[in-house]
Amino acid sequence: MAIGQGKAITVDDLLVLNQEIAALVRAGTPLERGLASAGRDVRGRLGRIARLLGERMSRGESLVDALEHERDSIPPLYRAVVEAGVRSGRLPTALEGMSRYVRGYSEAREAVGLALWYPLLIVAIAYGLFIMLTVVVAPRFAGAFPGLEIEPPKALALLTWLGENAHLWWPIGPALFFLLGMTWVATGRAARFGSWGWGLPRLVPGMSRFMADYETANFAELLALLLEHQVGYATAVVLAGESTGNPRITQATRDLAAELNRGHDAAAATEAIDASPFQPMIRWALSTADGPGSLAERLRGLADHYRNRARFRAESMKIWLPSLLLVVLGGSAALIYGLSLFIPLINLLSKLSLG
Questions:
Q1: Which of 163, 218, 265, 297 could be stapled to 134 by a disulfide with Cβ–Cβ 3.0 to 4.6 Å?
Q2: pLDDT tens digits for 228-238?
């Protein structure tokens, strides 16, 4: 049975699998034997993945080929990183870089989830209270106006109408919460790093820059690793681009490689493509690949810079993101509920006071 026929591998499973492979490589243990052993010892999806990879390698396939056969469950990003490590001859180092990248995403996703939980709880409670307002409170409130010979305000008439037709609209809220939950689960699947599910956290304020910094750090680190081991620049830049999982960066690196293969130097090749997917300092480093000094050293320095900046952004998000979401979501729900209740009441009291 192929892994792709089962559930897609999760981010946490990918991290554990990556650490297991890295440990086996560092220890010098044959991967096919170590993965087969891990497959017997570990239950569930992760154990099945390890066992099938071990079986394929025992039949003479390389690790890259074994991962390629399981493309429906193992993300292209991971396969690109493994191929980069194999090409450079430093697979453990490449796998360690992958661990840092995936762990960073997992930590960021957890931070966003914790930040979203409380505001969404407030929205859910407010939605339930609004249903009660339209179904129970508004009709009784509206019934008082005819006895006082006062025309009900339009806002109250709207609430009453909503209550009479609540069976048509109330399932919308639970359906949206269910869809949000399923979408959140999708972000925990690593089957496609560049998919819509993986990119959803970017919609959260601050998350796009955070993820961009981690992508850039991973790109710079892997490109430096490849160049240090004499992998051709055009080939290396494509592999490093694929390792980010970002479709725009992947396409930009392919365009850059095409320009290099046409005989253009690094500066001209970078100038000829749409380099906007790269962050400014990375664009500068790519354009000076033919210049003095080691490009690999510059890239490693940039990798450290962007990774540290991503960590700083993560810590900042833990402070301001929950407060922002609470104010926006909770405040909006409280405002809607308050206006729905008090505008009709103020209107009634005003007309009674005027006789």
A1: 163
A2: 877 788 988 98
